[in-house]
Amino acid sequence: MKTVLFAALLPLFLLTGCVSGPPAREPGWWTKHVHDQRPEIESDAGMFYGSGDSNRSATLEDGDALEFKWSCDINGAPTWSLHVRPDGTGYAVSYETYIDGAIVRAAQRKLDFKLTAAENTELRRLVRDSGALTLRESFGGGGERTWWLGMRVGETLVGIKMNGGFPDEAKRVVQGAWDLIVKPRAEEFRKAERYKPDDWKNAPEFAPLR
Q: Would strands 145-153 and 109-114 be described as parallel, antiparallel, or unpaired?
């Protein structure tokens, strides 16, 4: 019940804005927070359904450029986002809540990064081995979370919306990318720039890859 209530209030937390800003975090706080915020989903118990083009398939070859983007919202309120461009540069947008007086507020930070050669190689392996490039365009279920997953291989765009339903292929690539890219950079969020879009519902950092 607490989870449902908290999720329902998330858009309000974001829209109320921030008066004093989030508190300074102790060393190690971000490491634990990123560990705890690893992309997980409600138990769908196999109740998600697939729709869209079941014949679509892309193959990532050694010479193909790769772009990867994932974002998550809960009841329409954006939380985390991860985007890796073909040149290996990218960003992660974090999500944290805090108490301001008697009000629960939310704050986000945007961390820019560049993948190492080893990280880039591993991301390509994750995408290739996960099976996510063959997923249909949309999956639905009864959960509150929505994942947008986009992968551009050369000129081919594979875009997937998961509204409460999450196939194993998507879980493997998203969680693998989180462990590879976000976890090692957890403490860097401490100094990352605050992310405060004027229109958070249409912020490009959370828009599907196009």
A: unpaired
Dmax (CA) for the chain in angstroms is 54
Return the C-alpha torsion angle 191, 193, 195, 197, nearest 10: 170
Write down the mean pLDDT value for the chain: 87
Q: Which helix (H) or strand (E) segment is 66 a member of?
A: strand 66-74
Task: Give Cα separations from 64 to 23, 57, 128, 155 (angstroms).
Answer: 43, 15, 12, 9
Question: pLDDT-based confidence at 14, cuts 50/70/90?
Answer: very low
97 vs 106: CA distance, rounded Å: 4
Are 133 and 153 contacting, i.e. CB atoms less than 8 angstroms apart?
yes
Confidence of residue 190 (pLDDT cuts 50, 70, 90): very high
Task: Give the tokens for residue 63.
Answer: 């010479």
How much is the pTM?
0.87
| Residue 205 near residue 71 (C-beta atoms within 8 A) | yes
| Cβ 82 vs Cβ 111: under 8 Å | no
User: How far apart (Å, rounded) are the C-alpha atoms in residues 79 and 19?
Assistant: 19
Is the pLDDT assigned to residue 110 strictly greater than 80?
Answer: yes
